[in-house]
Write a structure and sequence with these properties.
By secondary structure, the chain is mostly helical. It has one domain (2-57). It is built from two helices and no strands.
Length: 58
């Protein structure tokens, strides 16, 4: 039983670390780490972020 709880805690910590990293990357102005050239939604997510920033500074 202790091994099951320990495994669940480790998996939850890894998932939390991944989510925190994604949030930090998104706040820094990035998106996913693989680039948008091959992503079918690349124009949607990267385009919106660029447009939002240009409106703020314009």
């Amino acid at each position: 039983m202790a091994a099951t709880i320990l495994t669940a805690v480790i998996v939850a910590a890894a998932a939390l670390a991944a989510v925190v990293q994604l949030v930090k990357t998104r706040k820094a102005g990035g998106s996913c780490s693989c680039g948008c050239a091959s992503c079918p939604m690349g124009g949607a997510c990267a385009g919106k972020a660029k447009r939002k920033r240009s409106r703020k500074h314009a």
